[in-house]
């Protein structure tokens, strides 16, 4: 498969930190200036999820050059299912506890409220396809499985040439929907594997299939393109979210999941990283990249707990979540606690970093009988 691409491995941990920024909105509500800073951070961070899809498609293509794509997909699907199960095992108990606390505080039946939440969590479509039945944040895992499955299916049929055109058409339809342009009233959520994940996975797959192996010698041009498209991405989202609608950053933060400019920004960044495979090799970032999936699946319950603390704890009569210190510490704390949870799960033997993520009893509770 060739030498390691340190730049992509390093970007994994950076990208998951950006995902945490998206979900914490660290400066939203701190006046117009805070909203403006949060808008810039959130807009820049939107490159993170496409990056993960692009990287997955790229390495899927490279690893199936001399093997059956469907067989390799089954292996990847199994790994994703284990990771998804780990995420649910971490998140569901915390969310159910939150539901119970809210029901008790409102004088409602705790049993009925928790039971209702469990029923919602078992919704087949939301659980298995959209990945949102337990937590909206976990949507990425089923979406990646769908994207890889579609790419593998086309490859197995010998029609890999159709992957990118079909994926592009579906993504264009998604852009016409309410998430962005609002020109088409689609009856489905387009932030999914079909309209979103498939496109970026197919682009990553196409980049590898066309022989792009990194170290192209065009890193300067690609860096300029990344910066340029990044600026256009900000301008586009500002125009759509504020200027064209007569709105202001003082009223809130415009934060759609994706726009037209997201693709150009993400793809140019990914190509730049491929052109500089040694970038980050002298740091710990490439090694930390293996923790990215763990931070991703562990941070939803951490967010839920920190949100409750921030809303209920008081500092001089003011909710902690409204203090400047909270806005500064919220995102880093979420990232670090989620990382700690992941490392603790590995140390306890609940999962294995680099191996199976199917949760099991801690190692000490799995002693063999005498």
TrEMBL record:
<dbReference type="InterPro" id="IPR002656">
    <property type="entry name" value="Acyl_transf_3_dom"/>
</dbReference>
<feature type="transmembrane region" description="Helical">
    <location>
        <begin position="162"/>
        <end position="181"/>
    </location>
</feature>
<keyword id="KW-0808">Transferase</keyword>
<feature type="transmembrane region" description="Helical">
    <location>
        <begin position="39"/>
        <end position="61"/>
    </location>
</feature>
<keyword id="KW-0012">Acyltransferase</keyword>
<keyword id="KW-0812">Transmembrane</keyword>
<dbReference type="GO" id="GO:0009246">
    <property type="term" value="P:enterobacterial common antigen biosynthetic process"/>
</dbReference>
<keyword id="KW-0472">Membrane</keyword>
<keyword id="KW-1003">Cell membrane</keyword>
<feature type="transmembrane region" description="Helical">
    <location>
        <begin position="252"/>
        <end position="273"/>
    </location>
</feature>
<feature type="transmembrane region" description="Helical">
    <location>
        <begin position="221"/>
        <end position="240"/>
    </location>
</feature>
<dbReference type="Pfam" id="PF01757">
    <property type="entry name" value="Acyl_transf_3"/>
</dbReference>
<keyword id="KW-1133">Transmembrane helix</keyword>
<protein>
    <submittedName>
        <fullName>Acyltransferase 3</fullName>
    </submittedName>
</protein>
<feature type="transmembrane region" description="Helical">
    <location>
        <begin position="285"/>
        <end position="306"/>
    </location>
</feature>
<dbReference type="GO" id="GO:0005886">
    <property type="term" value="C:plasma membrane"/>
</dbReference>
<feature type="transmembrane region" description="Helical">
    <location>
        <begin position="137"/>
        <end position="157"/>
    </location>
</feature>
<feature type="transmembrane region" description="Helical">
    <location>
        <begin position="326"/>
        <end position="345"/>
    </location>
</feature>
<dbReference type="GO" id="GO:0016413">
    <property type="term" value="F:O-acetyltransferase activity"/>
</dbReference>
<feature type="transmembrane region" description="Helical">
    <location>
        <begin position="193"/>
        <end position="209"/>
    </location>
</feature>
<feature type="transmembrane region" description="Helical">
    <location>
        <begin position="81"/>
        <end position="101"/>
    </location>
</feature>
<feature type="domain" description="Acyltransferase 3">
    <location>
        <begin position="5"/>
        <end position="343"/>
    </location>
</feature>
């Amino acid at each position: 498969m060739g030498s390691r691409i340190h730049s992509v491995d390093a970007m994994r941990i950076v990208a998951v930190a950006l995902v945490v920024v998206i979900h914490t909105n660290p400066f939203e509500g701190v006046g117009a200036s805070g909203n403006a800073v949060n808008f810039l951070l959130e807009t820049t961070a939107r490159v993170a999820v496409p990056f993960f899809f692009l990287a997955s498609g790229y390495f899927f293509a490279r690893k199936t050059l001399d093997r059956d794509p469907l067989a390799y997909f089954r292996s990847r699907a199994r790994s994703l299912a284990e990771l998804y199960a780990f995420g649910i095992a971490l998140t569901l108990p915390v969310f159910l506890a939150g539901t119970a606390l809210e029901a008790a505080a409102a004088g409602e039946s705790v049993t009925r409220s928790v039971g209702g939440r469990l029923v919602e969590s078992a919704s087949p479509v939301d659980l298995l396809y959209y990945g949102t039945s337990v937590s909206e944040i976990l949507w990425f895992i089923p979406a990646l499985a769908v994207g890889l499955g579609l790419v593998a299916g086309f490859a197995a049929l010998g029609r890999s040439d159709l992957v990118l055109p079909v994926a592009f058409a579906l993504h264009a339809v998604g852009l016409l929907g309410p998430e962005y342009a609002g020109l088409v009233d689609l009856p489905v959520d387009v932030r999914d594997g079909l309209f979103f994940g498939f496109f970026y996975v197919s682009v990553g797959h196409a980049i590898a299939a066309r022989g792009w192996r990194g170290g192209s010698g065009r890193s300067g041009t690609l860096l300029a393109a990344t910066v340029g498209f990044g600026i256009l991405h900000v301008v586009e989202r500002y125009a759509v979210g504020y200027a064209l609608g007569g709105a202001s950053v003082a009223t809130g933060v415009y934060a759609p999941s994706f726009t037209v400019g997201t693709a150009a920004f993400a793809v140019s960044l990914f190509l730049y990283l491929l052109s500089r495979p040694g970038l980050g090799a002298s740091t710990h970032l490439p090694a930390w990249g293996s923790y990215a999936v763990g931070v991703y699946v562990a941070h939803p319950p951490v967010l839920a707990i920190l949100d409750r603390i921030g809303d209920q704890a008081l500092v001089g009569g003011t909710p902690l979540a409204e203090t400047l210190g909270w806005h500064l510490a919220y995102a880093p704390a979420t990232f670090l606690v989620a990382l700690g949870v992941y490392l603790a799960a590995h140390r306890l033997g609940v999962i294995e970093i680099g191996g199976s993520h199917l949760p099991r009893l801690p190692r000490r509770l799995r002693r063999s009988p005498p």
